[in-house]
Design a protein that fits this description.
Blueprint lengths: L4 E5 L4 H12 L6 E4 L10 H4 L9 E4 L2 E2 L3 H11 L12 H25 L1 H4 L7 H25 L12 H15 L8 H11 L2 H5 L3 H5 L11
Parallel strand pairs: 1-2
Antiparallel strand pairs: 1-3, 3-4
Length: 226
Amino acid sequence: MAKDMTLLWGTGSPPCWRVMIALEEKSLQGYNQKLLSFEKMEHKSQEVLDINPRGQLPTFKHGDNVINESYAACFYLESQFKSQGTKLIPDGPAEQALMYQRMFEGLTFYEKLNAVIYYEWYVPEGERHESALKRNKEALVTELKLWESYLQKLGSGSYLAGPSFTLADVVVFPTVGTLFRFGLSPERYPKLGEYYNLLKERPSVKASWPPHWLENPKRLDTLKDI
């Protein structure tokens, strides 16, 4: 089954990490995979463009089915392998509603993180302004406080949609992992810190941990003052 799957991915990319966590949770180890380098622009190679005309990672294929958008790939894997591995969509309407809500809010969370940590990557040198970066940082702080309040309401030891690990955790944890990699203070955001510590020990997360983070575990300090 997994042998019919191919994943082209980049280390440290939250969208790639989402799909890798989902594959682990659905017990689909042993899929074909190839690690590509963003620095060498390998995501724009013909190998990727043949499957993903946007030239982005992840690029994912199951048999003849191509699902490159990370959220779509996670939904697809849960739908096609419902009875295998972890059940990632809860049956209860309240938990399911919260799961969907947090999943799609997770896209805004990821966007606001990127606007700060990759500001210099996205914005050409002549167009950068300290005031714009300051605004981006303020927007990220507002977003972090929101997620902190969500976790506060759910109580200690909870996942994003309640007592069960769901697709919300699959897609949002890579953003949380990246926040702490870039130096977010767990003292300033204790609930997010607690959530990070809970999930980083989960087998699917450990198995898919970005290899370059393992090679160089020292955290960056980009977000230390956020």
